[in-house]
Each structure stands twice: as C-alpha cells, then as structure tokens.
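Good morning C.,

I know you're traveling, so I'll keep this short. The sequence:
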Amino acid sequence: MSLQTVKTIDGIRFSVWSPAEIRKYSVAEITAPETYDEDGMSVQGGLMDGRLGTLEPGQKCLTCGNTAARCPGHFGHIELAEPVLHIAFIDNIYKLLLSTCRSCSRLKIPQEDLDEFIKIKNKEAAYSVISQKKIPERIIEKAKKAKECPHCGKSQSELIFTKPTIFIEKTDIGEHRLLPITIRERFTQILNEDLLLLGYDPATARPEWFILQALPVPPVTVRPSIILETGIRSEDDLTHKMVDIIRV
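The tokens, ready to paste straight into the viewer:
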C-alpha cells in the first residue's frame, strides 16, 4: 500500500524558461556529439549520458537510481556559442521590436498616453480576455508608427522582417541585420511596466528569454535508440539534430 500524500492541483500556469532555470533543472551539460563508445556504453557528457535517464532493462539511472520502468528521464542542456532566436516566439519578437525604441527600449508612446492605457486597464474590475488582447494591440499599432521616441528623442528606423528569423533595420546610412545578441540586449532594458501593458508577466515571460542561450536537452526516454534488424543501433531524429547543434 502506498503511503504517498495525495495533493490537489489548484491550477497550471505555463511560462517561458529563463536561461537560469534551464541550467537549474539540467542534470548535465552536454558537450560531446558522440553517443556511445566502442564498448556500447553511453558517453559521459554525450547526448545519451546516463544522467539523462536509462532505456536498458536492469540498468539504473545515474541521477535518480531507478531502472527504466520507474525513471521518468531527466533534462540536460547545451550551452550555445551564440544566442539564437527561439522560432516559437518570432512573432512576439517582431512585435516587440516594432513597438519599442531602438535606443532606450521604452514603448514608443508618450507617457501620458501610457498612463491612460494603465487607467483603462485598471478601471475594469474584471479585466476580460478581450480587453487583455485589445489593449496590447492598440499600443503596438500606435507605437510602430512613431518616427521618434517620445522618451529619449532618438529617431526610429524602418524594420524589415524576412522569414523565418531575419530582422533588418533600414537607416539613413544603409541596412544592417539585427543579430540575436543585439535583440537580447535591447529586450533586457524593457521596463516591467511596459511589458505588463503588452500582456506579459515579467515574472514568467521576460522577452530576453525568447532568445536562447542554453538549449534544453530532452531525456533519453523522449528520444529512445532503436536496434535495427542488422543489430546496428540507430538514434532518434531529435538526437541527430542535437548532434548537429553541438558540432556547429
């Protein structure tokens, strides 16, 4: 008979992992593109590292000590050489670049107008889902038209977006591509008050987290190896893709 305490779940909230959280919940930094050595043992620091879980019956996980039947698997991480835009948040990144100043990172709307938006938001006792969407949409629509930042006075450039992940600023002296590291630096300066008006919770979704610095590596249970009829071990497509990332 199990003596585990039963608890009631009050709710579930989805958030964006920060680089610090990715590293905190990681059991191992993955640095080697190799998976198994010549003896068929998983390579330490490789994508099938024994700390990420176990697939073999009778073999114990190096993190939790359980066998494959009870081990849930554990995340690792890869430290990226350069920041990379997260493809799932490209639309968010585009809207933030359109609506914030390229110099001071404030919303390109006069402070008195921002104060009015805050009043509208606070006026409704029940801040409805419709309002949550409409206020950010109105702010972005107004901010992206600004030719000059009302806060620092710097002129604003035309932003060109080329799918999937290329952002180009067009200035008087020509065009230049915005690198992920530059975008991340701008986003770190965005005030929490401005983010709240755009519908973001700064505690769980800071915009600089949309640019990856550390890449989570899924447990081996998510991407198990298979043994072909020839006896050769074949790795999951996800594992192959992460091998490419490490080698780059």
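Safe travels,
E.
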